[in-house]
Amino acid sequence: MRPIWLLAGLGLVVVVGRRTVGDRRLQNLSAATGVPADVLAAFGVIESNNVDDAIRFECHRFNRHGWAMPCTTTADRPWSVTASETDAGAFYRAAPLDLDHAVRSSSWGRYQVMGSTALSHTGWTAAEFLDAFERSPADVSDEIAIGWWAGNPGARAAARSRDLLALARAYNGSWSETQAAYYADRLGRALA
C-alpha cells in the first residue's frame, strides 16, 4: 500500500492502508532507530495492520521447550497459520504453563518484535514485560522496535538503502529464500 502524506493542522499525517499514523510518533521512532519513516510505516502495516496491542503466539517456538500446544505446521511452512493457535488467546492459554517462554515465543506490538528480543532490550522479566505491554502497548511497541533496530545495524543500512531483500532476510528471518523474496515483495508494494 502506498503511504499518503496529508496536511493535518500544522503537522503531517501518514496514511498507510486504512490506518493513520501520527507524524510525530513515526518521526520520533525514525529518529530513534535511524530507519526512514516510510519503511517503519510499511512494517507497521505488514506486521500488524498498525495495531499496537497485536500479539502473535509462535506455537512452534513455544513447543521447542517441551510443551505441546496445538500447532499445525507443514514441512514447507514450519509455523502455524491457524488463528486459534497463534492469536492472543493462544498466548494467554500458554502463559500459565510457562510465562517466560510464552513471552519469548510471541511477536509483540505494531512491529511484531519477538519477545526474546523485547526481554533482552528492556531487561524486564516476562511478568514485567506483559504488565507494561497490557498497560501501554503503543509505548512498549515502539520501545521494543527501537531495541530490535539498535541490535541490527545491517537491517538499518538495508532500510536506508532500500535493499528490500536484505531487509526482509534480517527482519523476517532467512530460513527460506522464497519466504524472504515474498516478504521483500510485500515491503516493496507497501512502499510503492
Quick description:
The protein is mainly α and 192 residues long.
Characterise the protein shown here.
The chain has about 190 residues and is mainly α. The protein is built from twelve helices and six strands. The strands form two sheets. The chain has a three-stranded antiparallel sheet with strand order 1-2-3.
Keywords:
57% helix, three-stranded antiparallel β-sheet, 192 residues, mainly alpha
Layout: helices, strands, pairs:
Elements: E1 4-8, E2 11-16, E3 19-22, H1 23-33, H2 37-48, E4 55-57, H3 59-63, H4 83-86, H5 88-94, H6 99-104, E5 106-108, E6 113-114, H7 115-122, H8 126-135, H9 137-150, H10 153-161, H11 164-172, H12 177-191
Antiparallel strand pairs: 1-2, 2-3, 4-5, 5-6
Helix pairs in contact: 2-12, 7-9, 8-9, 10-11, 11-12
Indicate the low-confidence ranges by residue numbers.
1-14, 16-21
Describe the strand arrangement of the main beta sheet, using strand numbers: 1-2-3
What would the average pLDDT be, to the nearest integer?
Answer: 89
Order of helices and strands: EEEHHEHHHHEEHHHHHH
- Helix count? 12
Taking all Cα atoms into account, the compactness measure Rg is: 17 Å
